Amino acid sequence: GLAIFPHPFWRPNASKCYNLPKEFAEILLKSGMFDAFEIVGAMTQADINRALALWTDLRGEGYKINLVGSSDVHSLERSPHFPYHLTVCFAEEKSGEMRKQRCR
What we know:
single chain; alpha/beta; four-stranded mixed β-sheet; globular
């Protein structure tokens, strides 16, 4: 399996409080403990923009962080959206080597 850092700037029930402070999200992404960063999923456009800005800043510092986008679906039973829920992974290749390539 892959360890994916999910939607750090999600705001539960549209609250004014983010799920995670930007500084802590940055520490976690720099640590290398995740295989990928969810850039799209379960967030508003403004929150997606924050995630993308964080990823761009870290790329500028030399960190290579794989991205995924997800519908964040928790169930497909009797869903009118099936089979449109999916996860997208942006990778140079499909291999088990992704973990070794993720950080500097």
